[in-house]
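1st attempt posting a full record on here, be nice pls
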Amino acid sequence: MPSVTKSIDVSVPVRTAYNQWTQFESFPHFMGGVESITQTDDTHSHWVTKIGGVTREFDTEITEQHPDERVAWKSTDGKTHAGVVTFHRLGEGESRVTVQLDWEAEGIVEKAGALVGVDDHQVKADLDRFKDFIESRGREEGGWRGNVDSPTT
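the predicted structure (as tokens):
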């Protein structure tokens, strides 16, 4: 199963970075391959992606969320897709955003892409675009500050 972990430092307070990241419907502005995200309630969303000519639709659920710290999610429709993004205060107006994604590669194109590191480059490019997006605005477009505790096993 492919997995990617990447970080980027952004010149905004951690609250600003976190709040923007909770605005899932804005992801197409900085995530390559994300066509649209529709948030259906506080913890569920529907994604449409197009990567390498392959269009996918899937639903996700937030499995854990703590303001200014982390947002974790997983797919809910049989596809194996999960991730977590964490936020770290580096200074008054500096934050580190770390993304970890895990998914099940499907088909020869995705499996080959995972082998040669295409996914690593995509996540890095998305974080670079997030940095440009949030720093150029200097403020978030909104934010959801709700808490979602991880399920107990």
